[in-house]
Amino acid sequence: MFFARNGRRGRRRALVATMLAAAVLLTGACGADDPENEVRTADGQSFDLAPEQAGRVHAERVDAIAAKVPQPIRDRGTLVVTGSATTGPPLRFTATDDRTYIGSEVDFAALVADILGLRLELRSADWAQNFVAVDSGAVDAFISNVTVTEERKEKYDFATYRLDTIALEAPKDATWAYQDRKSLAGKRIGVGSGTNQEQLLVRWNEQNVAEGLPKIDIAYYQQTTDYYLALSSRRIDGFLGPNPVAAYHTATTGQTKILATYSGAGDALQAEIAALTRKDNGLIGPIHEALQYAIDHGSYQKLLERWNLRSEAVSASRVNPPGLPKQQR
Length: 329
What we know:
It is a single chain. The protein has 329 residues and is of the alpha/beta class. Helices cover 33% and strands 21% of the residues. It has helices at residues 9-27, 63-66, 71-76, 104-116, 127-136, 196-210, 224-232, 243-253, 284-297, 299-306; strands spanning 38-40, 46-48, 78-84, 93-94, 101-102, 119-125, 141-142, 156-163, 165-171, 188-191, 217-220, 238-242, 256-263, 272-278. The strands form five sheets. The chain has a five-stranded mixed beta sheet, with helices on both faces. Strand 4 (93-94) and strand 5 (101-102) form a beta hairpin.
């Protein structure tokens, strides 16, 4: 779940250049007026990379829902939302100005703020520090591809808005195929530390080793650019991460392919992505209602279409549904 920002301007520009060059090869054109602000896939999907985000989906304030927001937040007039600085496109990443955060997760935060009648204030932190910010009360919510887990539910409340699908991404010319977890035995697979993808990969490795198979060589990455480079240079056989990021990278560069997709909770259940708040602070109810309003009135669907995430749509937002099971100690 990784896209670099802090102090990494050169790598960011290099990645944008790579995406744009690939898009030109795939389509022959890329935004006639300002090609650096747009990237297209081979099937014609266009992604706006400009900081202005003129096409962002908005909604009107809904008074009945806004009235349920805790009074201190209403008095302040802002919804303070944090997210990972390293999630990756199309989820959360920096625009072509290398400082403005854009992506589907930013759009979801903005849409919720609209319906609650609040001005969105975005914050950013490394993955683990986002939870610290919520714990301290420095932010109101964490909206950044957060999976519902049973362990997290002990401290936080959740309102879901997307299915959680993860993908195994490999170099386009990789000759190995995926059948099940045993296919990963002996392979070097990249993953992000502290993510549910890591939890699943570690579990699969433990099961493989218990069955006498070679271990999975797990490699950890914190930046999108680093694992993209590792894939292109064949330093890893594959990367296990969010399906939207893998699908975006595959479609915009033509350098990789997706070998398999899974629920973010493994075989146990279909995992879901959700907005996260401190437990019992009174905010998750209004956020849930705002998300459901967006689902019921069409803005939700438009947002998903904008970022090519239609396959991850949910029919309803849920509060604190079953999540990724706790690891056995």
